User: Fold these one by one.
Assistant:
Number 1:
Amino acid sequence: MGLEAALPVDSFLTTQLNKVINWSRRSALWPMPFATACCGIELMATATSRYDLARFGAEVFRFSPRQADLLIVAGRISIKMLPVLQRIYLQMTEPKWVISMGACASTGGVFDTYAVVQGVDQYLPVDVYVPGCPPRPEMLIEGIMAIQKIIDGENIPYDGDGKRLPLELAIQPTYEPAAQPMDVSVGAT
Ligand code: SF4
């Protein structure tokens, strides 16, 4: 349940108020990082001065789920960790969002074993998939911006029972890979 529950039914004032609420929400996403492996390093880089997640109002990483509304799963999740991840998700504030960052979080990656979850979307409602191994910080920012656009447009999808549906957006790579340096070789004299 969100702030909207306290508002009167549709009126001019409600519409304007909703715009302000959505603007505040999208300008102050508070991420809850669940970083278990190498993707976590890129996640940390996203908050540094070079990539500056603060430009999008989402740099306040919270390690308390009750103060966070954006869960970023970065890295492989083992079956043993899964109940902890689910509990963290349940404790987060509404409306809440989930980003699955990297191949391991989204599919298990190269870890095709019985001990690793083969995609967190089997257990959590994932809104945005950020592909890559690891994804670059720019791509994570792209994923956060996709969520901001949905909040802005007030397109938060609900099912018939008022339960929020996952967005299931997949981010496409937006950078050109640089060419390998040609004149560097190991043991060159
Ligand atoms: S997707 Fe690649 S970089 Fe990310 S956790 Fe898995 S192995 Fe590491």
Note: The chain has a mean pLDDT of 86.
Number 2:
Amino acid sequence: MLITSCTVHDLRFPTSLQLDGSDAMNPDPDYSAAYLRLHTPDPALVGHGFVFTIGRGNDVQAAAVNHVAQRLVGRAVDDVCGNPAALNRELLWDSQLRWLGPDKGVMHMAVGAVMNAVWDLRARSEGLPLWAVLDAFTPSEVVDLVDWTYLTDFMNPAQGREILEEQVAGRPQRRATLSVDGLAAYTTSPGWLGYDDDKLVRLSREAVDQGFRLIKLKVGVDVADDRRRLGIARSTVGADIELAVDANQRWTVNEAIENVKRLAEFDLRWVEEPTHPDDVVGHSRIRREIAPTPVATGEHLANPVMAKQLFQMQAIDILQIDATRVAGVHDLLAMMLLAAGADVSVIPHAGGVGLCEAVQHFGFFNAIAIAADPAPLAIEYVDHLHEHMADPVVVDNGVYQLPGVSGASTAFNDEAITRFAYPSGTEWSS
Ligand SMILES: [Mg+2]
């Protein structure tokens, strides 16, 4: 069976109308997806992948996804899905395309959409959810999925295998526990910067009623106002609910240190993206100077090499992997193994559109097979746009339920294409 064609859609959802998703760096995002489908002669067997963006430029991302995906047309499904590590290497090490990175930005994320679509296709053909496909691999097989080229000064394949082997005996118990209890979700829904105080109070109360134990607020424009909003949130939810803040890269290193000290009285679970995501040395200094407040980042982390450097510099406490920021499954496995080696918790970034669906598989696989201690783990959750996904996440009483549907949960509904394709969809043309 061959991959017969691919289709790519520029999907944009007009979230800026309600200021959903508004933060200090991104005041008016229209959550978007450059959405890829790999087709086979079997209409029931399609591989789905996407890159999340926030509006303008989604057409550029879609063109890049199409450029990479065209290489798969005419190839055998068994070849592509049977040896994804070879395909991953082929796409990332293309000697001419590599000039456009390497391993960062539009082309790297395009490879991510393609690789995630390939893994979705494989999982569907096996009739398993993606996390279960990964869970069926031995430690050696997982290690062989990672491109270790630039990582071995921090972790070599044998060390990666050791981390996985330590959890092998406990995997069935962890799987069983997660299938009953789920994995904690935390919510960002109440804390968007564009929401007024009444909405912050109302949504914070609702979040607690819905079972969430951690709420994240956007900060970064005006620290006096951040203090005021954190005070409102703390008095609304009480001392038992954890609060985290997210500056979305708005601060300089010096500002981050100064401002986090002014917010520390709220006993923050973490400060997220305090400064530029590439500033490894800056994160390291911030972490030292704001201790014991933990530092988190990852949603804009371009590749495993960046993650490695953050760990080598002891610059972060929490790694927030994102399902579509990097080159897909293989990069994400690398980053989770490196995090385990650095004793850093993985608390995936989600929200956007489709990101909760896509990243949950990695959050669960990490909790089953990689992390030394699954107790502090969680996945971000934002309660919107799930109706556009074919297999939406199930979050009950503040926890993600273990996905049971086959695939990588990366498919959009057909109706989303009809309505939200840009600019021809009915929502945009009207
Ligand atoms: Mg964030």
Note: Residues 160-408 form a domain with the TIM Barrel fold (CATH 3.20.20.120).
